[in-house]
Amino acid sequence: MLQALTAILLCQLAGETISAASGLPLPGPVIGMVILFAVLVIRKGVPRDIGVVGDALLANLSLLFVPAGVGIMQHAARLEDEAGAVVAALVGSALVTIAVTAFVMNRLGPGRGAGQSRSNEAESGGERG
């Protein structure tokens, strides 16, 4: 289990190193997660010990939000001063996220797979009318 945790943290360290060295606008942990994903795809499966460690981390994920909550409380006065901008950013980003998700689901959802063409949809639509 310690080896699995070490492997996960090494992927994060590699991501941090790549992010710092290259100046990419991506956080190191995101790059590390992509590295871990690539390794798991190449191995064609998730080793049992990495799965156990991942499940344990996910089970305790809520603990990782405690520092963010403390930071918000420390800057409560600033948030009050900029409440309008914060609310606008939250609502705007939520609407954009919903719109992008709807677009992607519409384009890639069930019935829109690579094997089905638009001509099949036209044929099925032609039978109705």
Automatic annotation (TrEMBL):
Keywords: Cell membrane, Membrane, Transmembrane, Transmembrane helix. Pfam families: LrgA. InterPro entries: LrgA/CidA. It comes from the Bacteria. It is a multi-pass membrane protein. The chain crosses the membrane at residues 30-46, 58-77, 83-104. The keyword Transmembrane applies. GO terms for cellular component: plasma membrane. It is found in: Cell membrane. PANTHER family: HOLIN-LIKE PROTEIN CIDA (PTHR33931:SF2), HOLIN-LIKE PROTEIN CIDA-RELATED (PTHR33931). This is CidA/LrgA family protein. It comes from Jiella avicenniae.
